[in-house]
Every structure is written in structure tokens, then in C-alpha cells.
From TrEMBL:
Cross-referenced Gene3D superfamilies: Globins, Nucleotide-binding domain of ferredoxin-NADP reductase (FNR) module, Translation factors
Keywords: Heme, Iron, Metal-binding, NAD, Oxygen transport, Transport
Domain Globin: 13-153
Organism, as annotated: Corynebacterium wankanglinii
Name of the protein: nitric oxide dioxygenase
Length: 390
């Protein structure tokens, strides 16, 4: 699922009285965002336990990552509505929309979120939530929801499926250890063609009966076959690694994700850290398969040479390119990526890794002088922290 057009965040406006109220209460809401988020999810899962067992990732819930992500995204969107100098959150909204369609989220679920989020704000802020405050923040939520609902409907339509109809059965036809902690799985089924760099959600039924989902980047694939790399970390990944064998069946969603290879003639620079190499390996696979003539530079940071799970495949793919190169940076040798020494001028840069890695590199890229700066920077991160790096 993919569209070239971004969500329409520019044509969203609060009524003047709502804008004044949101401005006045943005501080208290933002300061209490973690408490509001925790209260919100407690209320929602108490009323709808099926959402925790079958839709939301319990690992992210335990780490409080998902709780803060949703509420903080609403606050970030509110800031955009009332502050002309605030950055447009369109990139954040686009990533959220892609993650939602990869989980089969539908319009009716926004009402459930709304009811519990507003109840949480009222509980945490108490008497400060007057009818006027509640009305103003309701307007913020539904403006954001309307943008996402429209974007998600368009994404479902891009693959010609009904809203939410993204789950397919996938048969595991290959399972290969790439390192001590990373295993590659190949699943076959009636899917759709992935764009290079996209991901799929894999669902498994755990011992307690919960169907848990996690998103994995597609290393390579087509409409009948997806290959993913799974790092043994968390319930779903551990279950896949230890309990799922060749011949078994898992839930697989149609490919989604906004980090995709863009067409053009500009040089390509791929920069990853750890398991963040997976979507960039997908991009490399596509470039090599189609004999792309663009200059490609691949830079990878990892704990050590032994922990780089996709080293062999990446080296083979770069060797297959007409104009490709690799640089590696291993922490056990005190090596780190310094963008100031790279040839990035006019290039399309693709980043993938953890939150700290992305924040650091994006700041360094933004600080480059104009004559050394890339033309574009695209990125993906493997945690529900989009609001941090938007």
C-alpha cells in the first residue's frame, strides 16, 4: 500500500475560540502527557481488552512507548494548529497512517480512542477541563483523525482492498539463521507487490491465546513471497524464532510503509544501524535486480562485524551494482559515522535505526553547509517514537 501524495495537514484549522483555548491549555496537557497516556490506555483496554490481545503490541505497552506516542502525537498536531512557526507534522501523520493500515485499523476505532483519550484528559487535569476545554481538544482530535482516516482510506484503495482487509495467511517456506540473534523467514501467500523499503505485520497466536502483531521490513519479495529478518527481541520475535518452523502458517499483512525508494537520477546514500539494515537491504535488492545505474553508497553501524546480520547479502548486492561502495563502523572498534566526511551533496539519503541514531544523524545532516547537503533525507525507525523525530 502506497501513495505518492501525503496526508492533507495544511487545510486543517481550528475555530478562533478553540485555538485560543488550546493555546492556553497546551502547556498543562503537554506537561502531563505521560500520565494522560497511561490513564488513556488503562481505560481503553479495560473497556476493550481485545485491542490489547489482538491489535496493540504488548511489548510496547510494557515499555510505555506506545502510550506516549499516541498522546504526544496529538499534542504535536495541536501545536501545529495554533503556532504558525511549528513544523508541519505531515511526515509524522504519513508514517502513522502507514502503520495503521499495516495493522488493519479502521475508521470506527477512532471513536473508541476519542472517548477514552478525552476521559483520560478529564481525569488527569480535573476541574481544569471545562466544557470549553473539552470542546476545543475534541476539535483537535477529530481534525487529526479526519486527516488520518482519509489518508488510510486512500492507502487501502491503492491496493484495491476494503478498509482493514489486509490480513492474509502466509506459509513459512524458509527459515535461515543470519546471526546469533537474527533469523530470516520467507513466507508465501496471496499478497501484493511491496515497494522497496516497505514492511509487513506478522501475527502469531501466543500460548495465552493472544494474537500479537509486529512489523518487519521486507528484505525482498513480490506479490506471492515476502522475506523478512527477525531479531530475537520481544514476544513476537522470540516466538517466531523459537516456535515457528518451515511449513507453519502465520498472519501476514499487505506491505505498507512510507520509506520507499524514490525514482530519479540522484546518487543514493543508505545509512543504517543494527537491524535497521533490513529496509535498506530491501532497497539494495531492488536496485541490483533492476540494474539501476545510480551511484549507491552504503554505510552501516553495528556493535561488531559479527553482529551485522545481513553483511553477506549486502556485500553481494553492492558488488552486483555498477557503481556501489560500502563503509562499516563498529562500536567495538570505537568507530562512528561522521557525515561531515561523506560525499552527500545532491544525494537522496535513506536512514534507518533507533531513535537516538536517527536524531543524531538528522541533526548532523541539517547542520551541513548548502554545498555539501543532500537533496533529500528519508527515514524509518523501529519504535513508536515518530513524534520525536518528525
Amino acid at each position: 500500500m502506497y501513495n505518492d501524495t501525503l496526508p492533507d495537514s495544511k487545510n486543517t484549522h481550528l475555530a478562533p475560540d478553540h485555538a485560543e483555548t488550546v493555546k492556553a491549555t497546551l502547556g498543562p496537557v503537554g506537561e502531563n502527557i505521560q500520565t494522560i497516556a497511561d490513564t488513556f490506555y488503562s481505560k481503553m483496554f479495560a473497556a476493550h481488552p481485545e485491542l490489547l490481545s489482538d491489535l496493540f503490541n504488548r511489548g510496547n505497552q510494557k515499555q510505555h512507548a506506545q502510550q506516549k506516542a499516541l498522546a504526544a502525537s496529538v499534542v504535536k498536531f495541536a501545536s501545529h494548529l495554533v503556532d504558525e512557526t511549528a513544523p508541519d507534522p505531515v511526515a509524522m501523520l504519513n508514517r502513522i497512517a502507514h502503520k495503521h493500515v499495516s495493522l488493519g485499523v479502521t475508521e470506527d476505532q477512532y471513536q473508541i480512542v476519542y472517548e477514552n483519550l478525552m476521559a483520560a484528559i478529564a481525569d488527569v487535569l480535573g476541574d481544569a477541563v471545562t466544557p470549553e476545554v473539552a470542546e476545543a481538544w475534541s476539535a483537535v482530535y477529530w481534525l487529526m483523525a479526519d486527516v488520518l482516516i482519509k489518508a488510510e482510506k486512500d492507502l487501502y484503495a491503492s491496493d484495491g482492498v476494503k478498509d482493514g482487509d489486509v490480513f492474509r495467511k502466509g506459509k513459512v517456506v524458509e527459515k535461515t539463521a543470519l546471526s546469533e540473534t537474527v533469523t530470516a523467514f520467507t513466507v508465501e501467500g496471496d499478497f501484493t507487490e511491496p515497494r522497496p523499503g516497505q514492511y509487513t505485520s506478522i501475527g502469531v497466536k501466543l500460548d495465552d491465546g493472544a494474537r500479537q502483531l509486529r512489523q518487519y521490513s521486507i528484505i525482498e519479495g513480490d506479490a506471492t513471497r515476502y522475506r523478512i529478518a527477525v531479531e530475537r527481541d520481544g514476544e513476537v520475535s522470540t516466538f517466531l524464532t523459537e516456535r515457528v518452523a518451515t511449513g507453519d502458517t502465520v498472519d501476514v499483512t499487505l506491505a505498507a510503509g512510507d520509506l520507499v525508494l524514490r525514482p530519479g537520477e540522484r546518487p543514493i546514500v543508505l545509512i543504517s544501524s543494527g537491524i535497521g539494515s533490513t529496509p535498506l537491504t530491501g532497497i539494495l535488492s531492488y536496485l541490483a535486480k533492476h540494474n539501476d545505474s545510480r551511484r549507491v553508497s552504503y554505510l552501516h553501524a553495528d556493535r561488531s562485524a559479527q553482529t551485522w546480520a545481513q553483511a553477506q547479502q549486502v556485500r553481494e548486492l553492492v558488488d552486483a551494482l555498477g557503481d556501489g561502495s560500502i563503509q562499516t563502523f563498529f562500536r567495538d572498534s570505537d568507530e562512528r559515522i561522521d557525515v561531515r566526511g561523506l560525499d552527500l551533496a545532491g544525494a537522496d539519503v535513506y536512514l534507518c535505526g533507533g531513535t537516538g541514531f536517527l536524531q543524531s544523524l538528522r541533526d548532523e545532516l541539517a547542520a551541513l553547509p548548502a554545498d555539501k547537503a543532500p537533496a533529500n533525507v528519508f527515514y524509518e525507525l523501529f519504535s513508536p517514537n515518530d513524534w520525536l523525530v518528525s
